[in-house]
Design brief:
With about 120 residues, the protein is of the alpha+beta class. The chain has helices at about 70-80, 95-110, and strands at about 10, 15-25, 25-30, 35-40, 40-45, 50-55, 60-65, 110-115. The two termini are about 15 Å apart.
Length: about 120
């Protein structure tokens, strides 16, 4: 994940989501509580609880995301596209069409977007 990357505030209706930080530093909002996690630490976002994250380390971060069930995985697979390069693309602001598409994919997989990404 590149520096500054942040998911919109969202709720998983059927799945807990765990983030195990492999490298870098992330700031999380889970149920209104703010916390920071670094390499070797794990953060739990229970199902039904609004959460988001932001990559705060300038070098980016590597994170293993774990869920029980298939909602999140199915959404990611539906949103994915083949990589064109070995490096991450440069960050860019999402278009209104991209935001609408993500919202629809999430809704179809029991994930509700309830707010913007973290600043």
């Amino acid at each position: 994940m590149p520096f500054g990357d942040s998911a919109p505030m969202h709720i998983h209706r059927n799945e807990d989501e765990m983030f195990h930080i492999l490298s870098g530093t992330l700031r999380f909002s889970v149920g209104g509580e703010m916390l920071t996690a670094m390499a070797g630490e794990t953060v739990l976002a229970p199902k039904g609880v609004p959460h988001s994250y932001r990559v705060d380390s300038p070098e980016g971060a590597h994170v293993m995301t774990i869920t029980r069930g298939s909602d999140f995985e199915t959404m990611v697979r539906a949103a994915a596209r083949p990589a064109m390069f070995t490096d991450l693309p440069a960050p860019s602001a999402p278009t209104p069409e991209m935001i609408a598409q993500l919202g629809a994919l999430c809704a179809a997989n029991n994930i509700e977007i309830v707010g913007p990404p973290m600043a």
